[in-house]
Amino acid sequence: MRRRLLPHLPLALVAVATVFPFYVMVVLSVQHGRPLSLPGSLLPIHIDFGAYAEALAGSDMGRWIGNTVAYSGISVVLVLVFASIAAYAFAKKRFFGSKVLFWTFIAMLMVPYHLTLIPQFILISKLGLLDTMTGLIVPTLANAQALFLMRQFIIGIPDELIEAAKIDGAGEVRIFFQIILPQCKPILATLGVFVFLWHWNDFLWPLVATRSPGNYVLTVGLYSLQAKDVSLAVTMAAAVITFLPILLVYLLLQRYFVRGVTMSGMK
Amino acid sequence: MQMNPIRRIGALATAVVLAAAMAACGSGGGVPSDPSQVSGKVTMWIYPIGADLEKTWWQPKVAEFRKKYPKVNVDVVVQPWANRDEQLTTAIAGNKGPDVVYLIPDQLSQYADTGALADVTDVISSDRSDFRDNALQAMTYDGKLYGVPLLMSVTTTMVNKKVMQAAGVTSVPQTWDDLLAAAPKFKAKGYYATYYIGDPKQTLNQTFYPLLWQAGGEVLSADGKKCTINSAAGLKALEFVKKLIDNGYTPKDALTAAQQAETSPFAQGKVGVTISTASADLATYKLSKENYQVGPPLKDVKSVGYGTVGGLSVLQSSQNAAAAKAWVQWVTSTAQMKEFDKSRSYFPPRKSVGSLYASDPLVGGEEKYLDQMRPGVISPQGRALMDLIKPHLQAALLGKVTPKQALDAAAAEVDALLARS
Questions:
Q1: Chain A neighbors of B93, CB-CB under 8 A
Q2: Does residue B88 surpass a pLDDT of 50?
Q3: B136 interfaces chain A, CB cutoff of 8 Å
Q4: Which residue in A235, B206, B356, B392 is a FRET match for B200, CA 20 to 30 A apart?
Q5: B90 to chain A: which residues are within 8 Å by CB?
Q6: Size of interface A-B (CB pairs under 8 A)
Q7: Cis peptide before A213 (omega within 30 of 0)
Q8: Which residues pair with residue A83 across a beta bridge?
Q9: How far is residue A68's CA from residue A63's CA, in Å, rounded to a whole number?
Q10: What ipTM score was computed for the predicted complex, to two decimals?
Q11: What span, in angstroms and rounded, lies between the C-alpha atoms of A226 and A238?
Q12: Nearest Cβ partner of A224 from B80, B94, B96?
C-alpha cells in the first residue's frame, strides 16, 4: 500500500502548491473588512460575502458577462480559423518568401504591446469601429503565438497523407478540411482554451477600445466599480468572479487540453 | 525671395485651414454669462472616487445641470483607475479624448507639458480667491491653471490610543524629537513607534517626501531643473528614518516587502504613531475610529504633510470647450463641491464650503491641517523621478551605502533624467 502511495506523494504536494493560491483567493474574498493576520486568517472562520456585493454593485453585470463571452467566444473561433489556414500554408506549402514572411510574423512577438497600442487605436478609430464589438475583436485576430503553435503541429503531420489525398483527387480545400483539420483537433482544443483565457483576462485593449459602460467587458466593468483604496477582500472577490467562468471552461475542455499537451510532448 | 503664386495660394489656404481648425478645436474663450448661449455635448471621464456607485450620483447631477444649461448634454463615463494613463494617452493621441477629465497633480503636469490641456483660469476668474492656495498651486503648471480643484486629501500623524496608553506616552508627538523621545517607550512594551514603508512599490509622497519637506528640503529646485534632495535637509530626513530603523522603532521588513494594508503592523494594532496616514484608511479594514487620534503633521523646521488634490481639466482638443468649462464650473461650485466631498469623505478646496466634519473628532481633526498639505512634486517627470530615488533610499536604509552617498547618487540620476527631458 505504502509502495503504491509513495510515488504519488510528490504529485500530491505539487497539486496542493498549485491549488493553494486559489484557496487563498477564495478565503480572503470572504474576509471582508477585517484586519488580516496571516496565516491565521486563512482559516475561514468568519465568512462575510460583503466583498462580493461590493464588487458586483453594478447593474450592467449581465451585459459585461455577455460582452466578455462574445469577445472571447468569437475570438476563439476566428483566431483558430485564421491561424490554422495560415499555419497550413506555412507548414506545408513552398512559396516565394514564405520563410521571411513567417519569421516576420513571428517577430511580432518581440514588439511590446504598448508600442502598437496607439497605432492600433488610431486605425480602429479611423475605421469608425471604436466602441464596437468588431473593433474590439478584429485587432486581436492576427495572433502570432497561435500561428506558431499551429504550424509546429501541422509540420508533424506526414506529407504522405496529403500526397495520398492528392492522388485520390482531393483539392486543397478538401485536403485542409478533411485531412489536416481533423488531425489538428488536440492542438485546436488546447489553443482554444488558451485563446479563450487570453481574451477573458484581457484588460488593456478593451479598456482603450470601448467607451460606453454598456460595451465594457467584465475586467473593465469590474475595475470601473472599484474605488481606488479598495480592500484586499474586494480585489479577491472580483478575481473569483472573473476566474469562475474560465474554471468552468477549463473543466469542460480539460481532456482536450491534457490530450493536446500529451500529444505535443510525444512529437 | 519671391514665392511661386501657386505655392503662395497653397500656403495661404493651409494657413486658413489651420486657423479654422484651431478655432474649431481650440478651447479658448471662457464660460458665457448667459447659460442659454452655451450648447454642445460634453463627455467627462471620471474614476470611482469613494465606494458608492458613481452612476447613481452623476445621472441626477447631469439632470440638475441641464435645468441651468438646457442646451448642454453631458455624458459622464466612470472609467477604471487601472491603466488610466495608457487609456487617456491613447485616446488623446487618437484625437478621441473626452472633453473633461479628472486628474491629480502628478498627471496634470505631464499632460499640460504636452499641450493636451486647456487653460481654465477663466472658469474661476470671478472667485479665484475662494480656493485654497495649495489647491490651486497643485493644479498649476508653468504659471497656468490647468485644472479646477474638486477635492483634497489630508495625511497626517495618527496615534493608536491603546498603544499609547500601554507605552505610557501621554501626548501626540508633534516633532521629530517628540517621536524619538517616545520611541523607546513603545519598543519597551513590544510595539513599533512608527511605520515607515520603504519597499519600491510605495509612493514617496507618503513616506520620504513629507519628512524632507518637514526638514525644510525640496525634491527639485524652484525652476524644476535640478534635484535638491541631497541638500542638508534631505540628509537630515534620511538620517532620521535610518535612526528609526537602526533602533528597531519601525519594522525593518517593511523596507523590502510590499505589505498589504490589511496585513500591516498598523492594521494589527502594533504601531503607536503613523506619520502620514489618512483616517479613511481605518474604514477600509474596519478599525475602530474611537481608538485613534490625529495630530498635526510632524515638524522638524516646519509642520507639513502630503495631501493630494483632484481636479477637473478640460482637454485642448474639446470641440465644446465653453460647454465643458460651464460643466466644470458647475461641478466645482460651492454647493456641488460640498455635496461631493462630504459624500466621499474628502476635503473641499473652496474656503466657502466651510468645515464639513466639525462633529467628527478624527476627520474634523484632519480638516484643520488642510492648509499644511502639499501635493507632491509638480513636474512632468514627478512619477519617473520617484522610481529613480526609491532604490537609493532603500539602499541607505538597509545599510548598503551611507545616506549621503545614496542621496548624491539619486540626485545625479534625477539630474540626468531632467537634462534629457
A1: 118, 121-122
A2: yes
A3: no
A4: A235
A5: 117-118, 121, 208
A6: 95
A7: no
A8: none
A9: 8
A10: 0.74
A11: 9
A12: B80
Residue A118: how many other CB atoms lie within 10 Å? 17
| Pairwise CA distance, residues B162 & B168, whole Å | 10
Choose, out of B90, B162, B260, B345, the residue to mutate when testing the contact with A (most A CBs < 10 Å): B90
Q: How far is A30 from chain B (nearest CA, A)?
A: 13
Confidence of residue B23 (pLDDT cuts 50, 70, 90): very low
CA-nearest residue of chain A to B82? A223
Residue of A nearest to B344 (CA): A227
Q: Which three cell numbers stand for residue B295?
A: 495630530
B137-189 pLDDT per residue, tens: 999 999 999 999 999 999 999 999 999 999 999 999 999 999 999 999 999 99
All three cell numbers of B261: 494594508
pLDDT at B194 over 70: yes
Report DSSP state, residue A108: G
Q: Is A223 an interface residue toward B (CB < 8 Å)?
A: yes
Contact check, Cβ <8 Å, A224/B78: yes
